[in-house]
Amino acid sequence: MSGKDKERISPARFIQITSLDVVAGAVASALFATKLIGVNPGFAWWILLPMAVWTVYSLDHLIDGMQLKEKTSNLRHYYHYRYRKVFTILILLFASTGFTIALVYLDRRIFSFGILLGMLTAIYLMAVAFSDRFRRIFFQKEVFIALIYTAGIWGGPVVIGDPPPVPEILIILVFMITAFINTSLLAWFEARFDRMDDAPSIARRLGKNSLSRLLKILLAMNTLILLSMIFIFPGFIMAISVLFLMSALMALLLLFHPVFEKNRRYKAFIEGTFFLPALSLFMRT
Q1: What is the pLDDT of residue 132?
Q2: In which residue ranges of the chain is pLDDT below 50?
């Protein structure tokens, strides 16, 4: 990556670099989760969720940027390294402010769940930051991201709601599989850049062909689960439709990848997958 490429960024690229698109997708997904379960976690949760998502993602990118420094081919990692002082201050500010808000205003059940989830996230980030051996062996980073993302979105609504019935459990399962496909698909597209940076990823570990086959199997699995649910649980048709659209978009990205590889268009579509749950605004409660 040339110096000029590193200097020039569009507003849309800035949003991607700073993970604001991920935050927007998390809020859309949270709207989907709360609407489906039929609970309101409270104003504090709606403030803390985007803060927590931004903090975790930014810290992860900052760690990668600090390890690769200027030699990285990843623009996001480069900017996190270049502006590491700014990101560090913002991360500390968000973390301390968020903890204070949670301590004072958040539902105790969600707070307890959040502490546990935060501890597990911190352990993982410290492990990949300080142990190069762990970083290379623990190639299932995409699995961890899918699990922590799903837990962060659905955990709060679930712990304050009634025990979820079977269709809601299946929807959460499909959502988690979708999150894994999403992160793995990004790794699949970015394999050559990860190779240049010698950065571990599931695509490098399994190989692009093997990962492609795995993703197709998981997309087929999602489709079968969702089609079965249409007949068994017709009352959840809107939620099923949202998840089907998310899977369909990623299937198009994988099947017609040459189209999306031009100018790295895939980035916007992969992150945009999690904007689709905003369609839950049309779900009947």
Answers
A1: 58
A2: 1-5, 139
Sorted by where each starts, the structural domains of the chain and their CATH numbers stand as 9-282 (1.10.600)
CA distance 198 to 68: 9
The first and second tokens of residue 108, run together, are: 């105790």
In this predicted structure, what is the pLDDT of residue 228?
96
Question: What number of other Cβ atoms are within 10 A of residue 85's Cβ?
Answer: 8
One-letter amino acid of 204:
R
Q: How far, in Å, CA of 192 to CA of 219, rounded?
A: 24
Q: What is the pLDDT of residue 4?
A: 41
Triad 237, 242, 243: Cα angle to 5°: 100
Q: How far is CA 91 from CA 20, 186, 192, 233, in A?
A: 14, 24, 30, 43
- Mean pLDDT for all residues in the chain: 88
Give the span between the Cα atoms of 45 and 102, in whole angstroms. Answer: 8
pLDDT at 205: 84
Among candidates 38, 36, 23, 57, which has minimal Cα distance to 274? 23
